[in-house]
Amino acid sequence: MNNYPFIPYYNFETVCKQQPITFPPQHQSIQPGIESQMNPLPIFDNQNYVPSGKLQGKVAIISGGDSGIGRAVAVLFAKEGADIVIAYLNEHEDANYTKEVIEYYGQKCLLIACDLRQEEASKQVVSETLKTFGKVDILINNCGVQFPQNSILDISAEQLKNTFETNIFSFFYLTKAVLPYLEANASIINTSSITAFDGKKNLIDYSATKGAITVFTKSLALSLADNLIRVNAVAPGPIWTPLIPASFTAEEVSIFGTDTPLKRAGQPFELAPAYLYLASDDSRYVTGQIIHVNGGTIV
What we know:
- The protein is α/β, with parallel strands linked by helices.
- It is built from 10 helices and 7 strands.
- The protein has one domain (53-293): NAD(P)-binding Rossmann-like Domain (Rossmann fold), CATH 3.40.50.720.
- Helix 5 links the parallel strand 4 (138-141) and strand 5 (187-191).
- It is globular and about 45 Å long.
């Protein structure tokens, strides 16, 4: 690559002085959504960021790392010196673009397309990671889906199963597969949500899985403390990712995030430093904790 691969559609610092910030109405019909089809494209990389080698020589597995929050974390980790393994479902275009950016920053990236709802897929991810890199230092459990429904009566057994298998079962499976290979000072970071604390009337099953992730994080941290393996979570508020146009109506998308105190949705790059903090030695005395990045909502 001769040129930087991503050109922001606006000057973010300038636009943030305007309130509120809204998005053009849009909708995608298939989850978890395609980032390249979003308007505007999410901002996943802070080009003014100065790396300091905080993850030099590390290897990180990131589920759902092809786009959205996962992409922003993968890119920031790569800038800090980590090689990246991305486990994703079927968003090949997004995944290959993320790989291109990671390689632009001088790091290696292994893409693994798989269905993490199946336990065997997690074993495959870990096996291929070890064959390629020989170790794992950081696990980011991040994949997720959400299907808004106006009533619990509208949540089918199929939807309930899919949401729980994607959002929390996969976290169990991937953690179990990775754990035998994690050494002291390794870090596990889970993506929770503001809905785990505030709830969401049209996301009952999704909110329940995020509540489960929050308690999973705290319990696993206690379980692994003697192993010196830290377990924490990040609880995002409204973040501009492919899941948003793939979940909500065009009208809902147009006002997404404007009800926060900062009157806008967050961009993925604004969330990634929380994961970096929890992955690096900066947080060596932090485990069982949840970091809230939500635009000012008090939970």
